[in-house]
């Protein structure tokens, strides 16, 4: 395929993905029709089938892309050789900002999983474990350093992930709290949840 055709195919697929993310975040996966998606993407309905077998394959692709991009972004910015309290604050700041700046992806990647079947859900769970493993490692490091005091790192990592991710469903830019205030409050809450009585939020720290 000539380079120009490859570029056009890439742009078309990207337009379909962006349109799907926008529509699903606004009206939900079940309510989105392929005709609506095609109109939003600026393509003919038949063009969709050149890239995806149907809505379910598109949704799974978008969710897996979200998790992969999330993991890569964290690995790129996470502190090196830092104490667990500093790394946890960096993780909270990263995760909250990421989901506030990409609210549509956050909603799609976490609120529409009910639309996937068991096999697809297991694929998503495997991808999510890689990211949750990063958080669990921070928690285990903190306990080993004597900073954190809690019982179950795996359970706590799931609880923290869900709490931090939920921010994309309620935050409003016109609300009382700005992004940095939300980050600070979630950081303080995370420290309390891990049982760190000596941890304090550093307002200058950014992920």
UniProtKB/TrEMBL annotation:
<dbReference type="InterPro" id="IPR001647">
    <property type="entry name" value="HTH_TetR"/>
</dbReference>
<dbReference type="GO" id="GO:0000976">
    <property type="term" value="F:transcription cis-regulatory region binding"/>
</dbReference>
<dbReference type="Pfam" id="PF17932">
    <property type="entry name" value="TetR_C_24"/>
</dbReference>
<keyword id="KW-0805">Transcription regulation</keyword>
<dbReference type="InterPro" id="IPR050109">
    <property type="entry name" value="HTH-type_TetR-like_transc_reg"/>
</dbReference>
<dbReference type="GO" id="GO:0003700">
    <property type="term" value="F:DNA-binding transcription factor activity"/>
</dbReference>
<dbReference type="Pfam" id="PF00440">
    <property type="entry name" value="TetR_N"/>
</dbReference>
<dbReference type="InterPro" id="IPR041490">
    <property type="entry name" value="KstR2_TetR_C"/>
</dbReference>
<dbReference type="InterPro" id="IPR036271">
    <property type="entry name" value="Tet_transcr_reg_TetR-rel_C_sf"/>
</dbReference>
<keyword id="KW-0238">DNA-binding</keyword>
<feature type="DNA-binding region" description="H-T-H motif">
    <location>
        <begin position="33"/>
        <end position="52"/>
    </location>
</feature>
<keyword id="KW-0804">Transcription</keyword>
<dbReference type="InterPro" id="IPR009057">
    <property type="entry name" value="Homeodomain-like_sf"/>
</dbReference>
<feature type="domain" description="HTH tetR-type">
    <location>
        <begin position="10"/>
        <end position="70"/>
    </location>
</feature>
<protein>
    <recommendedName>
        <fullName>HTH tetR-type domain-containing protein</fullName>
    </recommendedName>
</protein>
